[in-house]
Input
Amino acid sequence: MTVLNDNLPISKSDSWRMFDDISPRYDFLNRLLSFGLDAFWRRQLVRFLPAQHNQKLLDLATGTADVPLTLVRHHKNIEYAVGIDLADKMLSIGQAKVTRAKLEDKITLNHGDARQTNFNADVFNVVTMAFGIRNVEDPLQVLREMRRVLKPQGRTLILEFSLPENKILRAGHLFYLRSVVPAIGGLISGHGAAYRYLNQTIEHFPCGAAFCAIMEDAGFRNPTAHPLMGGIATIYAGEKG
Ligand SMILES: C[S@@+](CC[C@H](N)C(=O)[O-])C[C@H]1O[C@@H](n2cnc3c(N)ncnc32)[C@H](O)[C@@H]1O
Output
């Protein structure tokens, strides 16, 4: 199930190269362009973690490791977290953050592809992915991989940008995405295409019920969508039946 996006300035299969290019400014621009909300949204994932002890967590497209750092800091029941990404420069920045936080015993970062990981089936209690599923050509393939590596009854949590349903909020948000984000993001990162890619991929990505239907196709039971801040971002949760 490929999400078509014909006029993207960068192809989704090469998006990791773009993230390597912008890696020195990635965290700073995330905080700036979202007014700090990206960190708040990642923290909301904690509410959806299962309560059981000794959870093994996998974070796909982990980038600079903000998801494993946030979840390990705010949820005492995570035994360990593994983060994988294709962009080695993003991972190096993430590794420095993990070391600074003295969490090397709990968080491991590895080079790896979300479309086909090298983990055995039925290993993890939780598999997460934040702002990553929009960057792969075939979300269904990644969702199937998430389901494969989850233990039975394991949970997947996906955080992704979405578009508000309220027409006024949506119009204001689209203006911000189309005009402000490429201008500021391009200026500070020196990579204008990356921030045009951002708004175009957000606008074309299936969100809400449409994404839940893809999760169901991948075999997740009762997928649910939880809009944040009027639907600017959404957390999707689903369980392996
Ligand atoms: C917007 S960043 C999100 C990073 C991080 N999850 C966060 O919350 O900030 C998207 C990440 O997806 C990674 N990525 C893109 N395609 C991938 C793939 N097939 N496998 C693993 N990572 C991928 C990129 O390298 C990039 O680090």
Notes: Residues 15-16, 19, 61-63, 66-67, 85-87, 90, 113-115, 130-132, 135-136 surround S-adenosylmethionine (CB under 6 Å). Strands lie at 55-60, 78-85, 107-111, 124-130, 150-161, 220-228, 233-240. Residues 222 and 238 are 6 Å apart (CA to CA). The first helix runs from residue 15 to 33.
